[in-house]
TrEMBL record:
This is dITP/XTP pyrophosphatase. Substrate binds at S10, G11, N12, A13, G14, K15, S72, F156, G157, Y158, D159, K179, H184, R185. It comes from the Bacteria. Homodimer. InterPro entries: dITP/XTP_pyrophosphatase (IPR020922), ITPase-like_fam (IPR029001), RdgB/HAM1 (IPR002637). GO terms for molecular function: ITP diphosphatase activity. PANTHER family: INOSINE TRIPHOSPHATE PYROPHOSPHATASE, INOSINE TRIPHOSPHATE PYROPHOSPHATASE/HAM1 PROTEIN.
Amino acid sequence: MTSTPLILASGNAGKLREFHQLLAPLGFDVMPQAEYDVPDVEETGLTFVENALLKAREASRVSGLPALADDSGLEVDALHGAPGIYSARFAGEPKSDARNNARLLEALVEVPEGQRSGRYWCVLVYLRHAEDPVPLIVQRSWEGEILAHPRGVGGFGYDSLFWLPEQAMSVAELPAEEKNRLSHRGRALQALVEALGGAHEPR
Ligand SMILES: O=c1nc[nH]c2c1ncn2[C@H]1C[C@H](O)[C@@H](COP(=O)(O)OP(=O)(O)OP(=O)(O)O)O1
Ligand SMILES: [Mg+2]
């Protein structure tokens, strides 16, 4: 069986690792957009969906291949939904997980345990080609609480501050396979692959 190559429209090493772990066993021939010199697009949308569409469209346009983009972020209730679509740039440019985490802790310093609920969102967009008028779109969330101090060294982004009450661990303490099974991204991708059903041929 020859699988259609698929461009992953992301420059985030943590996401790319998770996509690879999830898609390689399913026989997808996945390539990071850097292999096609796809530039990072400006994420000018006001929603995860819009930003994911911008990223997928650019990657597909430059590579001439089907593309999958992920726009994701953290929504914190005590911060009225911030950092949301601005999660990657929460502490300004250049993007830095360490500075984003420091800014999050700072913003929540007065917020007591029990009022630190939030969730990760992941929106996936799959385009068969750059002008695909029927993008396949899936969104999933993952509930948790924001810790007052980091725990664990796995994952990426805000994972060392994201507490899972049911697992009694931070995401950064969770084994990678467990994160992929439970996460916003892992579950969105499972749904997307089901929706694809192998029938999405490029045209
Ligand atoms: O599982 C996750 N574990 C921890 N943090 C996460 C996760 N999922 C998203 N996040 C955070 C990281 C980043 O601060 C933002 C995504 O921003 P987002 O624009 O989608 O990604 P990005 O700019 O890092 O790479 P790219 O746009 O090239 O895919 O949300
Ligand atoms: Mg981004």
